[in-house]
Amino acid sequence: xxKQGWKSRSNRRCYNGRGFPQSMEILDLRQLRSRDxxxxxxxxxxxxxxxxxxxxxxxxxxxxxxxDARALTGYAAVEEGRTVGYSFFVYEDxxxxxxxxxxxxxxxNGPTEVRLMTHVIETLEATPGIRRIEAQLMxxxxxxxxxxxxxxxxxxxxxxxxGLSLExxxxxxxxxxxxxxxxxxxxxxxxEAARLITSAYHGHVDSEISDQYRSxxxxxxxxxxxxxxxxxxxxxxxxxLLAFRPGSSTLCGMVLTSAVGVxxxxxxxxxxxxxxxxxxxxxxxxxxxxxxxxxxxFRTVTLSVTESNxxxxxxxxxxxxxxxxxxxxxxxxxxxxxxxxxGQRANTVISDK
Length: 353
Known about the structure:
By secondary structure, this protein is an alpha+beta fold. It is built from nine helices and 13 strands.
């Protein structure tokens, strides 16, 4: 159990004084151990499984390992010795990334989430050198949290988590086949894949959600995370395809997948070079990869898409994907052109006088 005498140095009252027990504390995660987080993570794993068909056990095990090493940066909401919510974050150069946030169902009332997230955001914004914060909170939030983020000058993007059953039928093939050569994933195309991502997402709404899409270095880091590390499932080389124009060594399209549970695959990336969009390359890639996944005994495939990307939403709906969950992505950039200094709150005004 969490020791009652341990209090966060930055423990604050709720933003409206209501909606959470007065005995609730917000503690630094480094004060907790794995045994303090295990019941909460077990509840979170069940939600990931039931709502998203995602096996979260590997991620939960990694979180517990970091907790025991006192290397998990973030905060926990503790009520009478019981951990009822937590959020952790990581630093990546000039950026703070909120890795996860979750609150136990009996305490999922808005104020608890806001109180927890207030500590996280204030810590990140007070960290010297942090100029951007990103968060995609799959199982956390609601309208109260969205409004709170808006009040902190975060941009909000509604997103869908969608799924398709491969047990019923394979979606129909495209009516026309573009002239492309489809080959399996090969690590030697790593740099070219990063170039394709940067080109495909130039000016795209998803580059507002994740700035990794804006540069070659960022796209390489993104690929490292999904191909070589289990942050988004276990990469499936046999379920990832590359598209080339005939006689060309330049990628014009790509689809990447990972295994996120028994019989469940997740499409981590689907993109097409802008000048070749509208030719049916994306349809061919999806048709081929869905057939491959079914041959490999996957029962379900999932993906996430930004709501404002209406063409992509319509494309997936035509393929019979249905919405399993709705969530928001949040992004904040320090307004350097307004006199922002590292370590200063976003709502602090610096006088010109």
